[in-house]
Amino acid sequence: MTGPTQPFSFKVLTINTHKGFTAFNRRFILPELRDAVRTVGADIVCLQEVLGAHEVHPLHVENWPDTTHYEFLADTMWSDYAYGRNAVYPEGHHGNAVLSRYPIAHYENRDVSVAGGEKRGLLYCRIVPPALGASIHVLCVHLGLREAHRQAQLTMLADWVNALPVDEPVVVAGDFNDWRQKASRPLRESAGLEEIFTRARGRPARTFPVSLPLLRLDRIYVKNANASSPTALPLRGWRHLSDHAPLSAEIHL
């Protein structure tokens, strides 16, 4: 497919929502998180650790929404959304979600769990902005805690990206748990994905823990696209809303 005849840009945000609670589940802050996410003005939002359903919390948590958490976060600002259920337990389930101002033409959640590890998934969305007239491929990622598991999941991610149309734009965002910084090189060499903070500043952004970010766990990768204004959002307004610093950027096609 040929690229757009006119320049097209959109803003991406990624954040780990910690199931709508502060650290150690002390307080439910999903309404405050929604307000903060709205202020960014992102066109596409990639969310990790989104609670899809829970049977117990609504019984005793004040301000628990009547809708799913991803619908509550989307509200009236993002017309389309997709959810991929990863971890399932007796009380409910959580996973990744994508919110989009543009139509999501197709989505699917692929299980990339590795035996002996946590349940993990890649949530894929094919998004078609009317003004663009072409597809944007978005993958929301939350990888495992063990290095061997992450390497296997990176291979699955690269295989998926390589199966997409060769000249269409791809955005991969989320929590890679890559504290040893071993993800970017194989993703670049095997799938042509470039990490936007590394491209701009030489290294991924520090995002965890949000109170004093030391580890570079969260990423935004692109293929067949450029990026500007990569930003780890100011911590003062976000410190109590997630244990990860949110990342945003303008993507240009």
UniProtKB/TrEMBL annotation:
An annotated GO BP: GPI anchor biosynthetic process
Secretion signal, residue range per the UniProt entry: none
Coiled-coil annotated residue ranges, if any: none
Record-annotated Endonuclease/exonuclease/phosphatase domain positions: 33-244
UniProt cross-references to Gene3D superfamilies, sorted A to Z: Endonuclease/exonuclease/phosphatase
A GO cellular-component term linked to this record: membrane
GO molecular function: catalytic activity
Domain of life according to the entry: Bacteria
Protein name: Uncharacterized protein YbhP
